[in-house]
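Before going further, learn to read the protein records used in this course. The integers have meaning only within a learned vocabulary of local backbone shapes. To see the layout at work, look at the sequence and tokens printed below.
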Amino acid sequence: MRSNIYNIAGMSIFRAVVLMLFMVVSLGSAWADTICVPYGGFYNFSSYKNITVSYACNNQKPLYYTQLFVNDQLIGWNTPQGCTAPGTAFVADGSTIRFLSKTGLYGANYSPQGLGNAFNGYYTPSSVPACTLAWDDGGGGIAEGFMSFTGTLKNPALSLRKTASNSIFTQLALDQYYTLTVTVVGGPTTAVVSILDSLPAGISTSGAVTINSTNSGKLSGCPAAGATSLAGCTVASGAVTPIVITIPVSVSLNTASSVVNTASVSGGGDTACIGSGVCQSNITTSVSPPPPTTIVINKSLGSNRANSADQFTVQVLEAGNVVNATTNSTTTGVGSTVSAGTGTTGTYKAASGTSYTLTEAGANGANLAQYSSTLRCTDSSGLQTGLPSNAAFSPSTGYAITPVDGAQISCVITNTP
């Protein structure tokens, strides 16, 4: 606990007003125990609880006839006489508080010392009774006073929301993830936040769990790729709202068509946040099967044909047999041109786990020995690894490939005389 004392005795009215305005803006984060404030102004303690108001403060001098307002309602008067014990009042959490000095309004008519100790309705410096008034000589001799507001900083209030990158996850697809968003009211957190999240059957982490840049460096203990639980994953104290945690996931072929994922958080200084209620969140996500496994071969020429009549036929072979559609598999065109829509196997629906050979044959009298060839393949799904990239290619042996589930393989055979 720490104590902050603001004393505006001896300040001018201008300086005092500036201080009060500063306090109105900043008290919500600075005040942790007891604070002395001047009369006037509004003080909003929305981040604090167990608030007590006292009519004297840390040996500062209270005013006679002080009015206390809470949320703009007058709730009491203070009339201490000659250093009598200050009165106190309890105020609802989060109230907006101010107090006004009746001395400043009515002067000596309401002073216990009588008119003889007043000058133009205010106390003169020589007549200020000990322990009753604070004097500000910069504002024309206006008596001012202090009050004590004592309270405890409210515990941060945490809540959790879980979302998914897509309303429908796709088995084997890339770039899918869950997101945990922790909102912290009255933050930052004052203790470690623990994360619990057991992923549904068939789903596991596909990479590192990350946190948003605002809370960079505060995430620790989270698993690497291949985990099915975030047990041990924590966010260090001092995190500010929002805390956004991204969980990249792999969705395997044995994942059910609909999955429910429940996550929870606890701690952070919120004694009510124990992994239930607003600190728990779940999401239901549909799961679709992966796209069909496919292979397509297209033909390209690096320069003019060795012979103007040369054409080429691309092929997908299974056990030596052509399995692709042959309607457009042979090229047409002259020079280095392959006419659009020709020289392609089209999209062949392959069986994952089956071995295929990608190759070509000469057509219309073309002698493939007159050409050097390269093969380039890509997988738009990102699932097939080890694909050739402009690798030397021999049509006589071809290129053997065994596609994995969901792979969408596209290859180009390029011939150059």
In short: DSSP finds two helices and 34 strands in the chain. Residues 64 and 111 are 7 Å apart (CA to CA). The two ends are 84 Å apart (CA to CA). Helices lie at 13-30, 102-106.
